[in-house]
Amino acid sequence: MASSKDRQRKLARAKLDRQMARRAVKERRRRRMYAGVGAGVAVLLIVAGIAWIGGAFDSDETTTAADQDICAWTPQSATTNTNLKDVGTPPTKDIPVDGAETMTVKTDQGDPIEVSLDLASAPCGAEDLRYLASKNFYDNTTCHEITTYGAIRCGDPSGTGLGGPTYSVYSENTPAAPDPSPSSGTAAKTPLYPKGTVALIGNPPGTNGSQFLIFFKDYSPATPEFSTVGSVAGGMTTVEKIGKIPTVADDAGDKVKPKTKITITSLTVGQTAASAAPSASAQS
User: Fold this and answer.
1) Distance between CA atoms of 118 and 211, rounded to whole angstroms?
2) pLDDT digit string (tens) for 204-257?
3) What is the C-alpha to C-alpha distance for residues 157 and 123, in angstroms, rounded to an integer?
4) Taking residues 12-33, what's their average pLDDT?
5) DSSP notation for the chain
6) Which of 40, 49, 229, 256 is the most buried (most CB within 10 A)?
């Protein structure tokens, strides 16, 4: 029969064997882990090297710009507002952001009104008008108001001031409010909305749709709310003629309804060459 000391030595030996086995297992796991990490890093380095050689990390501003959304359009409910007309929604990409476009407004009041749309300052406002014009949205609509602050309000097929498409666009080019500084005795500052300005108007402000203003007078409100989209480049005589039409009270009792009906027979928007100085070769 084994002595007590022999049993203790056997137990101690078995314990040591178990500890050594566990350490061996841990060591193998550690080595496999490090080997796996090392292999993964090596693969990543190889892939990154191939991508770098292929130019994957090169800057490509053209591709990035083409993939970006330039404008955002907010849906509006024709169920909630039955004056709205569903003609789809403009695109969000591939929208011109430089140069100018000509918007031609033909009315029954004289020569066409030509508006130079500012694509750099108001690309989304210009796209809004361009898209609606492509849908013949404005044809045979009226300019339903001659405002008390000196602008013709057009672009609402319903003639109520509540009409438009089933989307809206934010104001992107609203003039900054003037500083409340005391008069210095110098010449008057440039008006916020000079005569000839064309701006979008929404209700509430910032929810612009199809309606726009053509100013026949300078206007500088304390709190600007209209997003400027361009200016009259031709036909100002027609604008001034319309501005002189007498007004009567509308359904709300405001004396802004033209006594003579003003009809837009057609409105079109077409690309024009971006204004640029002649090249040296052209000058020579």
Assistant:
1) 17
2) 999 999 999 999 999 999 999 999 999 999 999 999 999 999 999 998 899 999
3) 23
4) 57
5) ---HHHHHHHHHHHHHHHHHHHHHHHHHHHHHHHHHHHHHHHHHHHHHHHHHHTTTTS--HHHHHHHS-----EE--TTT-TTEE------SSS---SSEEEEEEEETTSSPEEEEEETTT-HHHHHHHHHHHHTT-STTEE--EE-TTSEEEE--TTSSSS-EESEEB----PPPPPP-PPP-SSPPPPPSB-TTEEEEEESSTT-EEEEEEEESS-B--SS---EEEEEEEE-HHHHHHHHTS-EEE-TTS-EEEESS--EEEEEEEEE-PPP-PPPHHHH-
6) 229
